[in-house]
Design goal:
Layout (H helix, E strand, L loop, with lengths): L6 H8 L3 H15 L15 H32 L4 H27 L9 H12 L3 H25 L3 H29 L4 H20 L1 H12 L3 H18 L9 H6 L17 H6 L12
Helix pairs in contact: 2-4, 3-4, 3-6, 3-9, 4-7, 6-7, 6-8, 6-10, 8-10, 9-10
The protein binds fe (ii) ion (2 copies).
Length: 299
């Protein structure tokens, strides 16, 4: 059994310098080439509906990787002027998303699908994100996208039995869970250079994004539910819990979740500190520094 993390250990992890993230990402890159998808069971679906829903599910994942890759590399270019080390971390992080995009392309082809054009909701979402110009807005948005991504994968793992899909989900869950605290590190860095007035603006962005992301399952469920078997309410609650728990754990970021929405979804404050929410914590990232040591558990 894992021993509880002490306050001083938590502080030590929180104060990890950019160098630590850089070295960790470099180690992870070396291990990447050893990773293999499990394609022997690619045709073992219970129904055709399940397989088609899997195509939709992994297409959404593909678009998330594509957006993550582009934003990370754009940020790397912007950051290079004042923090070359952080810029390198962003580049390696973007490369990990690029590697996921390749894995997903291979996986989609193997299960008889392909990369499809984006649907209306997805397109509007990414178009809006693409218009964000301020660095703190981009990093916060990316952090929140990473959070709902890792939540979706982790929750899907609870229900999905198809072995090839489970393997794909396990890789994504493990890596996206690492990307959440990595983006917290980015946000903390960017915020240290953000003027007070812009921080107030960021709170509004956080609230608007929080609400939009919690409503997102209304659009994704009709397409993907036959694969992941998650209901709208279940997934919305999962998103709200993880998005709120993340910022509860990092109070210095000064972003407080919309209490009315948590109350509406029946989420109590005590629930935000539980073990499942801690899956994307900095402490979990510390344990995931070596890809082999992480234990991916379903939410
Ligand atoms: Fe990814
Ligand atoms: Fe990611």
């Amino acid at each position: 059994m894992k021993s509880p993390v002490s306050v001083s250990e938590r502080r030590a992890v929180r104060e990890r310098p950019t160098r630590w993230w850089l070295e960790t990402l470099e180690r992870r890159r070396v291990r990447q080439s050893e990773e293999r998808l499990d394609l022997a069971t690619r045709d073992a679906w219970q129904t055709d509906e399940e397989r088609r829903a899997a195509h939709k599910f992994f297409n959404a994942a593909f678009r998330a990787e594509e957006s993550g890759l582009r934003q990370a590399h754009d940020l790397a270019a912007d950051v290079a002027a004042f923090d070359p080390e952080l810029s390198e971390v962003l580049r390696l992080y973007g490369d990990e998303e690029g590697w996921h995009r390749e894995l997903l392309t291979e996986f989609l082809g193997a299960i008889g699908g392909k990369v499809e054009p984006m649907g209306r909701v997805t397109r509007s979402f990414y178009a809006l994100y693409g218009r964000a110009k301020r660095m703190e807005t981009i990093v916060l948005t990316n952090l929140m996208f990473e959070t709902i991504g890792s939540t979706t994968y982790r929750m899907a793992l609870r229900n999905v039995e198809q072995p090839a899909a489970r393997k794909m989900l396990t890789i994504l869950t493990r890596d996206e869970s690492f990307h959440v605290p990595l983006n917290v590190h980015f946000l903390r860095n960017v915020l240290s250079r953000t003027p007070r007035a812009a921080r107030l603006r960021l709170k509004l962005v956080y609230h608007a994004l929080f609400v939009s992301l919690v409503l997102l399952p209304l659009a994704s469920r009709p397409k993907a539910k036959a694969f992941d078997r998650l209901s709208t309410l279940e997934l919305s609650r999962g998103y709200a819990k993880m998005l709120a728990g993340l910022f509860e754990r990092e109070p210095d970021l000064g972003l407080n979740p919309p209490r009315w929405l948590l109350a509406l979804l029946g989420i109590r404050r005590e629930e935000l500190g539980d073990e499942a929410v801690g899956a994307t914590s900095l402490e979990a990232a510390e344990q995931a520094a070596d890809r082999d040591r992480i234990e991916v558990r379903a939410l």
